[in-house]
Amino acid sequence: MVGRVWVGLGLVMLAAVGLSAGWRIDESGGDAGVVAALALLALAAGCLLAASAGGEVAVRVTGGALFVAGLGVVITHHEVWWWLPSSWVTPVSLVALVISLVGVGVLLLAYGFRLAGLSGALGLLALASFALTLPLYIGSDEKSVFRVLATAFGAVALAAGTRAAANGRMRVERRAITAVAGVLGAAVTVYAGFDSYPVYAPGSYHAAVIGATILGAMASLALGVAVSRPNVVDGPPRKDLSTSRTVVSETVVQPTAPMPKQTYEPPSHLAPEPPLQAPAEPAPPHPPAGPVTTPAVPTVVAIKPSLTTAGSPAPAAEPASRTPDRLQTASLAVGLVIGLMTIGKELIAAFLALVD
Asked: 63 CB contacts (<8 Å, ≥6 apart)?
């Protein structure tokens, strides 16, 4: 663990040195765009490597931060890149896009794919996209793109969280709840894309708004309506009391059949000698020894109870499994809350537009 932290910090320091050297090279008249791009890649790799020593939460948070940072650079570069060298624009933009895709992949898929984790991750992305619309230097075109992204992420987070939370309900109730959440999220996403479409913006902004609208609406409908396979749904782990009882193996002890009687006959050399009394009288024959019988002894079978718990881990492994359970529950709560906030914001905007 310590080794990964130090290696990650070393990559971060190397990236800082590379950026500084590239800046000096560009000031002296050279072209250091490739050096800057490689330094940014080393920076992202070092952050992820150092965060991997902190567990799942640190890795997911780092992936989300890389996604937001890369996306911010790609979308807002023509507004805030006045202070960067001109030779850095193309290579750094491409690297920022790669870092953004890697970050969102780490955020969503690190440590397994679960609907509860998906809901929380998308909720955080929705909150980050909404926060990027607040800086004053952001233009109206960028705000339009970030608004659609925030709404799409929030809609999918709401649909995934609702489907995961409805895991323990009956099939009819689960179908109704998830369908309402999916259709509502898709409708609100389409409205946000239509209302914030930047007419006079460049083509890349049009593509970003249209793509986010279509993908968000389709994902919301897919998660909300496609409930034919309930085994895909997962939520906070719940104990099934019907299968978590302790099963003790019962062994029925049946007495074995009685052993056959064994007759003991002493050998001839151990037979007692006749008393020496009157030689004329023959010694009476010694009565044969009675048969020695051995009573039937039932076989005792030791009963060893099996403390196997069906459907639940062993008691020793229970404390280790509580942390992922709490993480999934917290992630589900974050996704539902932020999803409802983004959907509610767009519903209020639509209502105000109808009133005006």
From this structure: 48, 102, 103, 104, 105, 106, 107, 110
How far is the CA of 106 from the CAs of 41, 57, 160, 320, in angstroms? Answer: 15, 11, 18, 23
- 185-238: per-residue pLDDT in tens? 999 999 998 988 888 877 777 888 888 899 889 988 888 876 544 444 444 444
Cβ contact 346:188 at 8 Å: yes
Measured distance CA(335)–CA(90) in Å, rounded: 35
Backbone angles phi, psi at 263, to 5 degrees: -95, 125
- Dig out the tokens for 124 from the structure: 């955080």
Helices marked H in 110-170: 115-131, 140-165
Listed as ranges, residues in the chain with pLDDT below 70 are 1-2, 77-83, 113, 168-170, 226-324
* Overall pTM > 0.90: no
Supply the pLDDT for residue 285: 57
Residue bearing tokens 């030779």: 87
Question: Distance of CA 69 to CAs 59, 322, 326, Å?
Answer: 15, 32, 28
- How buried is residue 177: exposed, middle or buried, by Cβ count under 10 Å (0-12/13-18/19+)? middle
Location of structure tokens 């029925």 = 252
Contact criterion met (CB below 8 Å) for 75 and 146: yes
